[in-house]
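Example 3.2
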Amino acid sequence: MTAALVVVGGLGLTAPAGAEHADGLACGDTITHSVVLQADLGPCTAGGLVIGADGITVDLNGHHIFGIAASGDRAGVYLLNRSAVIVQNGEISNFDMGVAIEGGSRNVVRNINAHDNIGGVGGRGGDGIAILSSRNNRVLNSRAVNNAPYSGVGIYSRVDNDHPRATAGASTGNVVDSNFIVGNNISRNRVTPIGTDNDGIRMENDGAFNTLSNNTVANNGLDGIALFADTFDNSVTGNKVSRNGFFRTTARRGSGIIVFTRAARNLVENNQVTNNADSGIDIRRPVAAFPGATNNRILNNLAVGNSALPFIPSPVFGPSFDLKDGNPNCDNNIWFANRYRTFNQPCVTTGGQQV
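Structure, written as tokens:
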């Protein structure tokens, strides 16, 4: 499956010229040393804070950075080619996206409540927390609620050798752990959930060696956790994934965990995947000349009560099940020791238990 819009790269988030103020911070300021907020910041019309140095900590100290809930208000906290920065302990809302990490590496976002960040048209934003072409970052113990139109937490890669950019390359080695990612279900028109593309956690093409673990992922518009085409060697472990996929009314419903065509060598293990609208765990079949998702391992998961809505007739997606592999005889995917109620072919039940 080809990627959706690469949402962060479309922001045009050049760092605005800002100053550090001895008496506090202003919207659009560029931060070059560690700071602890002493008050809320906003409403910001063109971005919150821009990180201008490596190795610093921006502690929101329980305070709130907020935009104006209009397209073009950029990111609440923006890191461009920064490394070893910590953003923590506060609330970010009503921007095109909450926290945007573009390029750089080894940054940490923790204890952040990113909510109601809704991107504009043309791919300008659309996530609570987004990572683009960046490595070894950690998103920990945070909340991503009611962000749109792409994800609560998104991992994106810009791989385009014909058009080099300042930030390019695959997003690798990132960890998204112990977060609450719920209710991201607004569509691209910023108003209604009908036809939403919102995923809870969205990893687009070329993401590799990332870890998505111990997250609560629920009530998102389309898929709970989606690994797009050409994602490799990622781990999806220990997540609770439930009640996703009820807002898409065209093409298909949403599944709990979906691994798209051409994705390979990913691990899906020890997840609880329950009561999603379409399939529980869906490993996608070949499409046209493209191979299906192969050489993936799906182990020790609980998947029950899925297919909660009738599937939308589709020659591409077809009926839904708790466990579903679209490849004939599961190809080289390994399914083992999963618990389930419904399944589409015997190879997904190996070593498992029907409950």
